[in-house]
C-alpha cells in the first residue's frame, strides 16, 4: 500500500484515535484502485465512458466515506 506508507502507520501507532480515520482512507484508496485509468485511453468515447464510471463510483462509494470522514473530524 504505497499511498499509505510508513508515516500513516506511525501516526496510527502514535495516535490510536486516528485508526478509524485511517481505516476510512484505506477504503477510499481501495475504491480508487478499482477505477479505470482513463489517462491511457486515446479514444474519446472510451475516455468519456471511463470518466462516467469514475464519477458514478465516487458518488456511490466514495462520497459516503468522505461524509463519514468529515463526521469523524468534527
Quick rundown:
The chain is mainly alpha-helical and 74 residues long.
Cα-based radius of gyration, to the nearest Å: 15 Å
What average pLDDT do the residues reach? 87
**How many helices?**
3
Based on the structure, what is the oligomeric state of the protein chains? single chain
Main sheet summary? none
Q: Which percent bin holds the helix content?
A: over 70%
Beta content comes to: under 5%
Unreliable runs: none
Q: How many separate domains make up the residues? A: 1
How many runs of DSSP E, i.e. beta strands? 0
Describe this structure in words.
The chain is built from three helices and no strands. The protein has one domain (6-73). The longest helix has 30 residues, at 44-73. The chain is an all-alpha fold and 74 residues long. It has helices spanning 6-14, 19-34, 44-73.
Amino acid at each position: 500500500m504505497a499511498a499509505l506508507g510508513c508515516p500513516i502507520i506511525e501516526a496510527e501507532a502514535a495516535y490510536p484515535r486516528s485508526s478509524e480515520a485511517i481505516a476510512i482512507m484505506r477504503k477510499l484508496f481501495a475504491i480508487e484502485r478499482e477505477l479505470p485509468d482513463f489517462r491511457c485511453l486515446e479514444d474519446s468515447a472510451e475516455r468519456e465512458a471511463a470518466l462516467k464510471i469514475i464519477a458514478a463510483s465516487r458518488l456511490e462509494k466514495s462520497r459516503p466515506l468522505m461524509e463519514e470522514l468529515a463526521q469523524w473530524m468534527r
